[in-house]
Amino acid sequence: MLKRVLIANRSEIACRVIRTLRAMGIGSVAVYHLEDRGAPHLDLADEHVPLHGQVPSAAYLDQDQIIAACKATGADGLHPGYGFLSENASFAARAANEGIAFIGPDADVIKLMGDKILSREFARKLGIPIAPSATQTGSLEHFIEAAAAIGFPLLIKASAGGGGKGMKIVRAAKDLEENIRMAAGEAQRYFADGRVYAEKLLDQPRHIEVQILGDGKGNVIHLFERECSIQRRYQKVVEESPAPNLDRKLRDRICEAAVKLASAANYKNAGTVEFIVSADGTFYFLEMNTRLQVEHPVTEMVTGVDLVAEQIKIASGQRLSFAQKDITQKGSAIEVRICAERPEKDFQPAVGRIGLLRVPVGENLRFDGGIREGQVVTPAFDSMLAKLCCHGENRAGAVAGLEAALRELVILGVPTNIDFLARIARNEVFKSGKLHTGFIAEQAADLAPPLLAPADEAAAVLAALFGDADFRRVAFGVPEPYASIGAWRN
Question: Which candidate in 94, 291, 395, 423 is catalytic?
Answer without folding.
Answer: 291
